[in-house]
Design brief:
Elements lengths: L1 H23 L3 H57 L2 H6 L15 H4 L34 H9 L1
């Protein structure tokens, strides 16, 4: 009886093993399909990168043309103002031959009148405490005791 059960268990194990192996088997056709998918994805990614590169290249050219057109319009308006308007109006505009509006400042501080924010408050006097001092804004004339603190916390 034990031999019969052993042979039956072995046959059942073999059948289950073959079924699992057939489901997990990697055939050459599956490998070729996966390789083809990878190739298509790489080609698609390459086309996308080229498209993005072309887009930004075209954008840069268009912005350059727009800048040149703006410069031409400004020069036309400035020369017209000098020829046709009174001295007050013409003096408000730059001379027509000047491209000062389009020149960048050599010093970054001159390019932008805005200063970056500071992490401290400006002092009125040199001996004044700064905003980052531990006792900034505290009135030292009023003594603080533990009873006042516990009463204010209980409220």
């Amino acid at each position: 009886m034990i031999w019969l059960i052993s042979i039956g268990a072995f046959a059942l194990g073999t059948i289950i093993g073959l079924l699992i192996a057939s489901r997990l088997s990697v055939t050459p056709s599956k490998i070729k399909d996966l390789e083809e998918q990878i190739r298509k994805l790489k080609d698609s990614h390459s086309e996308y990168r080229d498209s993005v590169s072309d887009h930004f290249s075209m954008t840069a050219e268009l912005v350059q043309h727009m800048t040149e057109s703006y410069r031409d319009v400004y020069q036309h308006l400035a020369s017209g103002a000098q020829d046709l308007c009174s001295g007050e109006v013409a003096s408000k505009l730059l001379p027509a031959e000047s491209d000062a509006v389009f020149e960048t400042a050599s010093n970054p501080e001159e390019a932008s009148p805005l200063a970056p924010p500071r992490d401290y408050a400006a002092k009125q006097r040199p001996d004044q405490k700064g905003a980052l001092a531990e006792d900034f804004g505290l009135d030292k004339s009023v003594p603080v005791n533990d009873e006042d603190i516990t009463q204010s916390q209980s409220k």
